[in-house]
């Protein structure tokens, strides 16, 4: 349960990081 939430947040942060880098 906890891992699922962490994975979702991590994915969002990773995507955000890539968008922010542009």
Brief overview:
This protein is mostly helical. The protein has 1 helix and no strands.
Question: In words, what does this structure look like?
Answer:
- The mean pLDDT is 81.
- 91% of the residues lie in helices and 0% in strands.
- The protein has 1 helix and no strands.
- The chain is mostly helical and 22 residues long.
Instruction: Please describe the biggest sheet, giving its number of strands, its sense, and whether it closes into a barrel.
Output: none
Low-confidence stretches: none
Report how far apart the termini are.
Answer: 33 Å
- Overall 3D geometry? rod-shaped
How many DSSP E strands?
Answer: 0
Approximately how much helix is present in the residues?
A: over 70%
β content, as a range?
Answer: under 5%
| Succession of helices and strands | H
Global mean pLDDT: 81
The whole-angstrom Rg is 10 Å
Structural class label: mainly alpha
Given the structure, what is the number of helices?
1
Helix and strand arrangement:
Blueprint: H1 2-21
